[in-house]
Design brief:
- With about 270 residues, the chain is α+β, with helices and mostly antiparallel strands.
- It folds into 2 domains: about 140 residues, Fructose-1,6-Bisphosphatase, Chain A, domain 1 (2-Layer Sandwich); about 110 residues, D-Maltodextrin-Binding Protein, domain 2 (3-Layer(aba) Sandwich).
- Helices cover about 30% and strands about 25% of the residues.
- The strands form 3 sheets. It has an 8-stranded mixed beta sheet, with helices on both faces. It has a 5-stranded mixed beta sheet with strand order 12-11-13-15-14, with helices on both faces.
- The longest helix is centred in the first third of the chain and has 20 residues.
- The mean pLDDT is about 90.
Length: about 270
């Protein structure tokens, strides 16, 4: 383990170790033959590697913090009474993974009394490990992160994503997207919200927005962005809570938040 990680709490160190172990599992399965099932919606997939990664993460955490609560994308919530809650996406970007697209991540966050205190996002194929701890900053492979200083939306690069159930209520989501495109600003779509958020924290994107995100999609990214000096809210400007489902979020470098909010709030 890198020397800089010695300054982190035991909780963060366990999150790091769990993410690295899960990343090895995902790397071993990437571009191999594996079983794919569907959840709600024909494009909301789950592979055997989602489940294998999640099972290993849960076991690793339970062995070290048996009394902590765990909220998982695939298996739900364990032990609702603890003030500590682990929020896990064992494979964010499952559709990418299932189609041999090398953009996916392991996402692990921890909250204490619903305040996020630790977050880890790991892109195993290129060995990028994003870490944040409350009050200690955000880091990528040991280097401290800071959001961009871009002050004009015209100079920005944006990222977005779409919910799996887009076809059920497409109008607002698509209208917002079209409004932004009409501004002539470059927009990217990775297909893994955890990486989008990490990339805002790392200064690769200036703004990210998306609807329909679960807590496991964005909990780690919330802390990464805040600790890197950025801002992240719901579409109405309210604070995002870790237990809220179907989050509609805007993440930015702070300077662009209000200007971007004006572009989408009336849609």
């Amino acid at each position: 383990m890198d020397e800089f990680q010695n300054d982190f709490s035991k909780i963060t160190l366990v999150a790091i170790q769990a993410a690295l172990k899960a990343g090895e599992i995902l790397k071993s399965g990437f571009r191999s033959e594996f079983k794919i099932d569907k959840k709600e919606g024909k494009h909301n997939l789950v592979t055997e590697y989602d489940l294998l990664s999640e099972t290993n993460i849960i076991a690793f955490i339970k062995e070290r913090f048996p009394d902590h609560s765990i909220l998982c994308e695939e298996e739900g919530l364990f032990n609702k009474k603890s003030e500590y809650k682990w929020i896990i996406d064992p494979l964010d970007g499952t559709v990418n993974f299932a189609h041999s697209i090398p953009m996916f991540a392991v996402n692990i966050a921890v909250s204490k009394n619903d305040e996020i205190i630790s977050g880890v996002t790991y892109h195993p194929l290129i060995n990028e490990l994003f870490i944040a701890e409350k009050g200690k900053g955000a880091f990528l492979n040991g280097k401290k992160l800071k959001v961009t200083n871009t002050k004009k939306l015209d100079d920005a690069i944006l990222a977005t994503g779409f919910p799996y159930d887009l076809s059920k209520n497409p109008n607002q989501c698509i209208e917002r997207f079209i409004n932004i495109l009409k501004l002539g600003i470059p927009v990217r779509r990775i297909g893994a919200a955890s990486l989008d958020l990490a990339y805002v924290a790392a200064g690769r994107f200036d703004v990210f927005w998306e609807t329909g995100l679960g807590p496991w999609d964005c909990a780690a990214g919330i802390l990464l962005i805040e600790e890197a000096g950025g801002k992240i809210t719901n579409y109405d400007g309210s604070k995002i809570t870790t237990l809220q489902n179907k989050n509609a979020i805007i993440a930015s470098n702070t300077h662009l938040h209000e200007e971007f909010f004006k572009q989408i709030k009336n849609v």
